Records
---
Amino acid sequence: MTERLTHRLMLASAAPVAAVVIAVVLSSIVLLISGSNPLAAYADMVQHASKLETQVDILNRATPLYLSGVAAAIGFRMNLFNIGVEGQYLLAFIVAAHLGAQVELASVLHVAFILVVAMAVGGAFSGAAGVLKVTRGVNEVISTIMLNAVVISGLAAWWIVEWQAGGEISATGGRVGTEPIAESGLLPDINSWLEVFTREVGLGKKLTGMMLVAVAVGVVYHVILNRTVFGFDLRSSGANPTASHVGGVSPKRMVVIAMTLSGMVAGLVGMTELMNTGYYPSNPISLLGFTGIAVALLGRNHPAGVAVAALIFGFLDVSSGILQISGAASREIVEIMKGVIILTAVIAYEVVRRIREREEAAAAAAAMAAGPAEAS
Amino acid sequence: MHKRLFSLLAILLSFALLATACGDDEEAETVAEPEPAAAEPEPEDEMADISVGLVFDIGGRGDQSFNDSAAAGIERAVAELGITFTEASPEPDGSNRGELLQLAASAHDIVIGVGFLFEGDAAAVGAENPDTMFGVVDSAMLDFSGDTPTPFGDNIAGLVFAEHEGSFLVGAAAALKSETGKIGFIGGVANVGGLIERFEAGFNAGARAVNPDIEIIGDYITEAPDFDGFNAPDRAKEIALAMYEEGADIVYHAAGGSGAGLFQAALEQSDATGSKVWAIGVDSDQYHTADAGVRDHILTSMLKRVDVSIFEMIRSVIEGTMQPGPTTYDLSVDGVGYSTSGGFIDDIADQLDAFKAQIVSGDIAVPTEP
Amino acid sequence: MLAIELTGITKRFPGVVANDDINLEVAEGEIHAICGENGAGKSTLMKILYGMQPPDSGTIRIQGEEVELHSPAQAIELGIGMVHQHFMLADQFTVLENVILGAEPMRSLGRIDFDAGREHLDEVGRAYGLDINADDLVESLEVGERQRVEIIKVLYRGAEILILDEPTAVLVPQEVDELFRNIRELKASGATILFIDHKLDEVLEIADTITVLRQGRTVGTVKPDQVTAHDLAEMMIGSELPVPDAGESTVTEEVALELSGLRVAAEGDRAVVDDVSLSVHRGEIVGIAGVEGNGQAELVNAIIGIQDPDQGTITLLGRDITHVSVRHRREMGLGYVPQDRHRDGLLLGFTLWENAALGHQTEAPYSRGPWLSRPGMRGRANRIKDEFDVRTPNIEVSAHALSGGNQQKLILGREMVAGPAVLIANHPTRGIDVGAQAAVWDDIREARSRGLATLLVSADLDELIGLSDTIVVMLRGRLVARLDPNDITPRDLGAYMTGAALEAGAP
């Protein structure tokens, strides 16, 4: 039994390990071709990442990526491709920033209010795509792409003008943002939590408090998905909607719920920035929604897997700076590494899946040949 | 499910390729000039031990406009001031501007961010690194949160331009060269705090100074916070073709990378109708940076001399005269101007020089709002 | 002269030896039947002979020539043709178009020479005594006629050796007679027929020679006049063929499921289930007979709740459930064994213990309130595995590792341990082997004796007659006859199913 367990564990870890090894080899080849020294580049990356401040950067980067990845993963579990996380988080971001600046509440309530608004807006917007799918048969990929456009060049573009902080446009045209949220509505950094284990964080780096929210989202996602009837309904409906329907799960209902939940988590993506700066800027960090799809893919939609994937992406993104500043390589190598890791991970997972399937089929065939199952 | 997985993968890969393709072709190499105080006779005292970290905006070198102009400035500083530098550009989503500034600050004496989007990060990183000098192109670097605007810090400078003055000159050139009495203006992104509107205001004023009755068609590609307008050549092309169809024969753009679409439109419209129409470029001399095929249609370019500003800023640091807060580079210091490549406006050079002199002397006050 | 000679054919798949040293000799011009349970290796052997899969070892001789087959095209060239169990016809094309598809006679400039095609088709039809109208649209044809089109398609391409893969599975008895007449004509015209089947009476009726496979091996080759069905069954499974038998009636007065005036409309308001009224009592098995596509699927969908009826009521244990959700019906005691296991019954990539909960996840012991109970799920799964003899190494494997029969036992077990009041069994033994089939029958019978009301939809007439307490016949959406299984033969039942008996004025 222990032998079989070891075997299973080895199979499970084979895919990610193989993916990383192959990605490193391929990236080294690319680096060599482009005339850079891969060892020097990796040394720079590792050395840079070993600094506490860089680790804070990585976590700050990984936090919204994780939320975005979980949002995409919820859709994937239901066999839905929510490509609209991008629009959902930007819309939730600007609405939450605006409403958050309008109210005066006690600290905890204020933060909670803003987060709830963001989740409600993201959920409603994404849920609308779900409703369109089940009532009108509109493919969610199409509708969410359209809704992205509605947000990015429509609603957000309009509201940023409508809601811009009055008279605070610099003479040279720097900043157009929403009215800043009062201090009570901001989530303090959690450097002190980190500093319990480490030294003091320097360079003015602040570990985002949203990391705790992201961890909570991950735990809730895991528990709901694997430990509740609802999670079972969701997974089964995603895996086989007709069988699940026969088993009492309405696929239409699950589509709407899954899209809504996905949008709710998507709504939190922009909160990392909002909880830090307190306003919606003219240039909010974009593309997090699309990157989240890659993060979910790499993390196999698994709560912990997505976390690892978000950290890997965070690490690579943060490495892009040091590679340029040290002159070890151009920043494109980071994009290449991301692509290669995803590609090799998908292939490796598929290979492992086939091996496992074959082994199971062989075991089941052996059991059949052995005769009636024994009571165990 | 697997089919789905692979189509997804294909999409992601194309994103990755796109992101890679958007970047520069060359390596971001350390351009450390080994021969200090080389050829140029600029007898600076502390030459060669000043190093600059130049952080481009998204896309880096090769944007034919803003970043390229900055690159020209830093290369001039290498040649004439003997500095060394490294360069970097942010992730496509702009998430790591602050990190890049911080990294640059830890290795350099001067850090320059190309573009107003560095404003907030430069203010924060500047406060953390008081011994490093920071410059941000296109931002005043003033803190408006108090009663009166104050510089973010003694070590933080804003490099701004009198774009309206440069636009005035190309507006005058357009009016002088227009045969139909109709010209056009394409802005990249509206409502970025009036940033692009200033170009329009100067352009319109210059044109009307020549011909009060001239008809000017103005349009913007997108509105903030949708910044696609700075990189949407296809949409710029559509708008430009519509303007040419309406009878405009010269169109000026202040739309960054979208300008390529305008140039293409000018070429196609000319080929289709047989009568030549023109485009006016912006920021750097687009006669040299645009595709060779369209350069015969680029009448002139409004030069925002990012190169001058960066060079001057570095020199001011070396000379110890750097001012915190905004420094405006206007016509009087050649911080803005127009290009003459191609020789298309040589015949009106005198008239334009006259306008320039009037602006420098203050006889003409160029408006900043249309 | 041997038309086909296979020697030492072995083919392994991961974990299974599908064909193990198989020898087969088929004489020219004979009807040679290959029998065996599902999973005995018949299909694999035919795929090898048709060039769809290469054998791992062994030799193939066609008309005495040793050949290596790499593709069906090559097999066709050698005169081997295959009629698949599932027809491969384009519904919107005419018979002629279907027949010449892929082998079109051409005129100049890339035009299809329909006249030549028609001429050749008629020739083939005459030569082999197959009667078909070349201009009929395939969608207008009956199942038996479609099969004939498939056979003609193969003959048109010059096949002299025909492989028929379970050709009777989709036919009613009258159509089977017609098919057999055609097969004899083919033989008379010089064709060699390889006939795959597991219905022993049919095999004995039609074949000249019978080869029996069991677990991938050749058990023996016999002549039909030397053996009985009993002997063949023994050869096939090593024991006597089980027959469905309802045993003593356990029907009670208590109505468990009642349908009244039920109507289900398809697109365009055409009724696919039309005014169906029916009651199933506790302890009763009501069989629904009918040629597939006469509304049985829609009727079942309406009862389990995934399709809304537009008229009529459904009553379960005295409560109107016409518009109640699927989940609620399940919780009230409605069990369901679907026709298509993979589509409607299982989560193939999920573990057995998760599959054991599917459809019952809201009930104890699978869950408590909103929380799943993993021990409850695993416990139930182990119980199902033991009580219903699901052969698997453990309950952690995923469902697609199991054979069809074991998957079916898992599904039936899942529904049975939930203690349903009413079971809808939709083709419960389709595509599973004889052993599993007998187990399914036993389980249904046993539950019936404990008071389960069962609605059995099946295409297996022996199963219907053997198991049911009452049989109703469904034709074009309506219940057209109510029959007593004790005094009806499969042949009579087939006549009702096609409507022939009704037209003839039978009761």
---
Amino acid sequence: MDLSYSDEQKQIKEGVERFVREEYAFETRRKIAATPRGWLPGNWAKFAELGWLGMAFSEEDGGFGGGAVETSIIMEAFGSGLVLEPYLPTVLLGGGALALGGSKAQKDALLAPMIEGKKQFAFAYVEKQSRYNLADVAVTARKDGAGYVLDGHKGVVYNAASADQIFVTARTAGGQRDGKGVTLFVVDADAAGLSRRDYPTQDSLRASELTFRNVKVGADAVIGTLDEGASLVERVVDRAIVGICAEAVGCMDAVNKATLEYIKTRKQFGVAIGKFQVLQHRMVDCFTNAQEARSMTLMASLKIDDPDVDTSRKAASGAKVQIGKSGKFVGQSAVQMHGGMGVTDELSVSHYFKRLTMIDTMFGSQQHHLTRYGNISMAA
Amino acid sequence: MDLKLSAGDEAFRDEVRAFAAANLPASVVAKTWSGRHFEREDHMAWQRALGRKGWLTYTWPKKYGGPGWNVTQRFLFENVLAEIGAPRILPFGVKMVGPVIYTFGTEEQKARFLPGIRESSVSWCQGYSEPGAGSDLASLRARAVREGDHYVVNGQKTWTSFAHWGDWIFCLVRTDPDKKPQEGISFLLIDMKTPGVTVRPIIMLDGAHHVNDVFLDNVRVPVENRIGQEGAGWTCAKFLLANERLGIAEVPASKRGVQGLRDIARAEGLSDDPSFRDKISDIDLQVAALEMSELRVLSDMAAGGAPGPEVSTLKVRGSEIQQRIAELACEAVGDYGAPYQPELLFRDSNESGIGADHAVPAAARYFNMRKTSIYGGTNEIQKNVMSKMVLGL
């Protein structure tokens, strides 16, 4: 057993941390969030150039042969600066789906240019009624000659406005909640019949509602096996969960640092408020929570590619429960210890709190994953 | 002891309901249910209607224009208004400065300021906190120097709710820097139109603008606008804070919030989810306990007592409960908490929401409610008060 980073991993970590330090000061981030795209193409080009877009893909797929640990290193540093560039939808979700389910032709056409920074993706899996159930899919894909015709609505699709391709789950067989009969498709973002309603999210990202009306795709738009998309998507999402858990760890460490600094300098009753025991204990609890979150995320990153599927599913859900719990405690405590300043838009603290809140909901809440963990464990 | 309502109480409740139905525009009530923010005029028009009826200052003694209601009637009044979705009565005039004026003010001051509060023709805001004086309010530094029959005031107030709507501000200022912190403070009423008063918005984490910085730059305030003796401001301040803490438990709003949670759970298909049902039941029971605790305090007050330091406990639990309700609503809407739609929350917009109507304000409300354990004295300070004043630790 060895839980220390290799020299290469340390180098990646230093590189991403330097980027965040130099390019993601809080006021810079505010400006980036206000641009029409909500992220900077120059930063994306840098990610490609530094190899971060291909870090976790095999050399055979055009990547650099890293895995979940490398992804976590990058996501953690991004979390510490609340980085807005669409790494999660493009690399972890779209790229992840191609790596796990894509054909050689699909990888050549989509994954390779993504790694070079030339393509961005969005991942449309949420529906209004689906509530974290990846198999609850009402969007239909009807067979039409050699291809398919897609109809229906997908919600809260991050990065859809910037994406070149949209990955979308659709029902090719079975009832609305059947595990079998879900297929993952890839659709060009400018396909005829695909319309968007774009909006910002609470945490300054961009998302869209997508409506598919008679959207025609070829047989080569199917990612993985027909009707077997639910398990592919579950796998992709579980790996992405480890990524956002690492992002949350980065958020927690950064906001804890800001809070610690604040309670050391803010004076009331003639002393720094960090001298009050009630705040000291709360600060200690924040650190403990962040440590537990880091531990569970590390464990998940080491187990997520375990050949035993239940081991990997439990690792993802376990980490997500911890992140939900810790993120809420750390976020709420940071706001509370900052007092009035904590509830303003002016300091970064509220922005970390909002991102941590959104991470808890994304891919299933703490409660959802607690139940899932219990179901998998009981069935074993 | 009795919890039952008399026939007279029930008739009273019907009267309040009928009045609200006749005087609250449907467009204003709709904002309550959809979680949108009120405009100044939404509050003021409703308060003027209550004022004409003699109900706005429902907590005031009859002598100063209160309706002379008993504890049960006040309780019913607050509950009916919450149930019906009325905008909350802004507390700054009615609950805060009004009682200070009729308790500590001169006859001239009462005659000059109370009618404007009773009729809601004048809107008030609170100049207490400063950048360096939050929990440690007594360390405030806004300085008032006497020059003939005026004070010249310099300083900065912060977290001033609705200063941008305010006609007048009541301020704690330091009139004697050489005395002990609590002894050098005076309570001044300042016309917001006085030269030297500047308001700067503070944008909150949900994007809302409620609070402000208020800068006071050589503001000349007539001495006759001081309430109480020079240097006796801390007495007014403490009196006001105790009243404030009683009101901010917000029990009726939380009762409405629990009902709202059940509606959201039904709409989200969560009404059969055992874990979510338990969470709602748990918060429902917490509200019930808080309501009964508040009724006990009110009952003591009706028997002649003043609100004691134990009201701090109501503030702490009230804030935690409001936060929990908002948190559960956010949990219930799942992915549809993510869309940020300020145009729907803060402006009169006809645009439709991204998700269901109840999802639109859910996350913003959760974020916004974090303020409740900070304002009116942080919960940490409330617990200090409790441990010292109630438990003698």
---
Amino acid sequence: MAGKTSRDVLIRGIRVLGHAVREEPRIFAVAVGGSVLYHLLIIGSAYVVGAVVGEVVVPALESGQADTRAVVLSAVALVAVSLGRVLGMFGRRLGAGFMQYRLQASYRRRITRRYLELPLSWHQRHATGTLLSNANSDVEAAWFPIAPLPFAVGTLVMLVVAMGSLLVTDWVLALVGVAIFPALFALNVVYSRRMAPRQARAQQMRAQVSAIAHESFDGALVVKTMGQEARETNRFAAQAGELRDALISVGRLRGVFDPMLETLPSLGTVAVLLVGAVRLSQGAVTITELVSVAFLFTVLAFPVRAIGWVLAELPRSVAGWDRLQAVLTATGEMAYGNTTLDPQDGRPATLVFDRVSFGYPVAEPAPATAPAEPGLSTEPEAAARPVGVPERAEVPEPAGPVPVLHDVSFTVPAGRTVALVGPTGSGKSTIVSLAVRLVDPDAGSVTVDGVDVRSLTAASLAGTSALVAQVPFVFDDTIRANVTLDREGITDDDVWAALRLAEADGFVAVLPDGLDTLVGERGAALSGGQRQRLTLARALAGRPRLLVLDDATSAVDPRVEAAILAALRGDRSTPSDATGTAGAGELPPGASILVVAYRRATIALADEVVYVEHGRVVGRGTHATLLGSTPGYAALVTAYERAEAERERERAYEEPAPGTPAIRQGEEVDA
Amino acid sequence: MTTVASESTSERSESTWQTLRRGLALSPELRTGLAGTLALALVAMVGRAAVPVAIQQGIDRGLRAPGGPDLGVVGVVVAATAAVLVVTTMCGYLMMRRLFTVSETALAGVRVRAFRHVHDLSTLHQQAERRGSLVSRVTSDVDQITQFLQWGGVILLINLGQVVVTTVVMTVYSWQLTLVVFAAFVPAVAVIRIFQKRLAGAYGVVRVRLGAMLAAVSETVVGASVIRAYGVSGRTAARLDETIDAQRRAQQRAIRTSVVSFSTGEIAAGLALAGVVVLGVKLGVDGTLGIGEITAFLFLVTMFIQPVQIATEVLNEAQNAVAGWRRVLDVLDMTPDVADPGERGVDLPPGPIDLCFSEVTFSYPGGPPVLVDVNVDIPPKTRVAVVGETGSGKTTFAKLLTRLMDPSAGTVLLSGVPLDQVRFGSLRSRVVMVPQDGFLFDSTVAENVRFGRPELTDEELAVAFVDLGLGDWVDGLPAGLATPVGERGEALSVGERQLVALARAYVADPDLLVLDEATSAVDPATEVRLQRTLDAVTRGRTTVAIAHRLSTAQAADEVIVVDRGRIVQRGPHEELVNDPESVYGLLFASWLEQTR
């Protein structure tokens, strides 16, 4: 059974290699050509050495005088063979290397293109680590056998030629070759088959060790503040121990096979000596031929192992290829339509949610493609859980999407501001994602200016609406690039105007390189509030007609937020859009705004409030109406006042209150 | 940017031998049974010389025996050689077995030590390194060392041994021909070494480019929603292509160098063979050498070339492995600047904790001071709120208080004990901070909450959520406490993640709880409720809350106002708010404007 499976892997592996050859036929031809040249010259060198011994050395020693011409010719022939081999090696190594690197680059490009094309819902189903290893180690694994492939092809050619020349030389000596070379080949095959599952397991353990390290270092602050370094180390050590055991098992197998593979050709050489001696005494072969054949066995031993390398890498290659295909053939991309909205001179757009329902698909616990062999489940992220921290928890019933939104309907009229209010976890961020079409609804529709967002082109969609997410994402680039994102027509003046509006101009101005300052990985050089203001500026710089803010000012101090909101509001209330388009460096013209908010000030700016609870719209109307009509809303927005009032009451009862710290310093007071 | 630069300079600052010595000093296990392994390797190597010697003996004593071919002699030679080969094969097996066991065990230890060490480094150090590069210290860098020790190291050892054995046999046959062979190889080795250095540089570039490419890919994956929302996939694709191609070009440059280096050995081999024939024939004619010896020599030259070539290749790997080893050692050598006093330390006295900042100043390395001359006493069981604008230094205050960082000057005392003398075991169990970004591990709500207290049962966790007034929220989750939170908790909303992080700190049962904007993304009603329940459950303990929602300040016993690194006001809210022109007065006015 296992044999059949590995044969399947072998066949599929050869097919994968076929893809590679079809993609880079010319480079492959160069590599194989070089390799064949190299290998034929290996045989050639055996015969040259044999000839030199038989035709030059023996006569010279027997006659007691050297034929200078023959000696020089021998020397030239030996050097020529070397130069030819160098030529072959250049072709093979450069060809194989270039082919491997080109394939890697090409597939990395294809994979990352798919990442950009596939919808957010697909991204949410796949762990970041998996996607990273698809683009990195899976690409590497898929094309790993490419490096030894031309060498192996050359070896095969060499074996055929060697056997042929053996037969021509002497059929009895050829029998030794017939015994040794297939045995060597068979040993290699057995070796790779038994090695493949062990290697796969080691690879899997490696991925798990890496996953734990990644997560643990990501959460380093939590580990530190909770003093759990020892526990985390134990969790890591357990996995590192498994990796160690897997690697030792790989090593034991190597210990068995490597010395055998090395000894077999040597045994062949001494067998040639024995058989050759018999044949020589019978006069069937000359000493030249005997030496040639013995030499042949010595030089053939090493290259034959290249076939083993290719075979050993095939299962890994197939597994990598399968995972690449899973990405390349993944479906469900949110195709863009071909409708372009009339930009209307930048006047605000209308957003309508009509009976929208949505559920998040459940994360995929396993890769789309099952591993080719039972022992080959090398999915790096799966099962990376330690003892105590269970596996990526079992998917809860039911298996279908977990409903988040039910029948959500509301409108953001052109030029108006709508506040989206609701308790933590009520589905606000999901509504926001739907509004800018990061995800598509399961039922109902989202329209902008009367057009379903699904039928808009990517450019029209991105040019119309802008989202400022709750958690700011900053690219490892300059401030300028982070604001413009290379969108056309955004000048430095526009950038500064947007930064000013987002109250980010102050900190940018004092940065060492101003707009050219690099912000580091994920904006590490900036504080949370600065990152948030930078992403706000990014949204404003595109002059969106619909601005969607997902609690985007939460990391900003109240005063700063107030300033930003005042600017947005002031800008929108000025009749600038009536007098014409805003010039370069001016504030962007007004936009319709959908804003997720908790703060009363933000809510106060809104023309209408949509209140959601558990994924349903529970109330719509002005702040005042909702205060009266919707108890949940009232509880939420008046929380601070009520808390304060309650405190006042308590204080009144509890007087004298526990002394203020200022006066009770140093003394123990019980509550 | 800067990390890359410093990485490549540190790679050149130390010689290979120094690194190896440091590495061996750190893993003495590697020496375990080394003598035995080497002895086995030596025997295994002798097998390599068996075949040419057999050929020479077979030809000179058997085939060309004075009275015509003597098959008996050939038979004896062949049998003896076969026996030697069997023995050396077994020695080879035993040697590899030992080598694998020892090296894997030793380096698993290094892996775990490096992992622990990264956690022991201060947050400053941790943040200075790219997360991915820290991960490679305990993964690919260690793999490179083991791979080298086992594949490369064995091959290098065997091949160097083969060079030695071959040289000895060659010298026995003919010192003159040996000189010819060396004359061809010594310059070749010199040339190879030059290319080796270039190759090390070329591989360094490959590694840096690989890092850049992975960073670009990870940005594409993590920033998928921004890329989509702004329709900038074209720009992202261009950046990706740029890094992918840069890496490919670096790889191609490296392989070009390696081919040139490798072909040097091949040419030297050709020259050596030619030289042996020319001089060999002359010596043979003079009667110094026999045909068998010359033939054996031609074999020996081949046996000399192969290991030199292979050793050349392996040395390439060795460069990478040594660089990897150096990077691991560098992490281990990094002294944690916020170190656990360990045995020398003391435990915090039992009971509620009071804290005192005395003349505390802090600045990041090379930066302006973030906190200046801070003096503050907070009595036990007080609830203190620290407020101030973004960048005023309030988070730094929290980090100093929990000893995530040490002050540049001055002292922080908890219950009268200088903080740097408190054992971490005591500190981390008594003082818990909830950071703003409540990182969650990719498991369930329950597992995350019991992170600090693995022994807690689900029932106890459920009670804890009820204590915090979050029972309803847990019940509303798809699978309650068993709900998976996703990678970094991303299956939950930002606010929900904060709730879990808060519960995690609460069940840890600290005497001093530090909240760093721990509820910044939670809705006001929940926040107020949490505040009340927290007040109730933390009664009798000290809490310090860093807040920008001033509702927290209103509820606190005392408010500390930080402005531009200094404490400008302190006192209860009612007092501070009386001065409308003060920093606090202005902050509060703005707050009111926001919330009313």
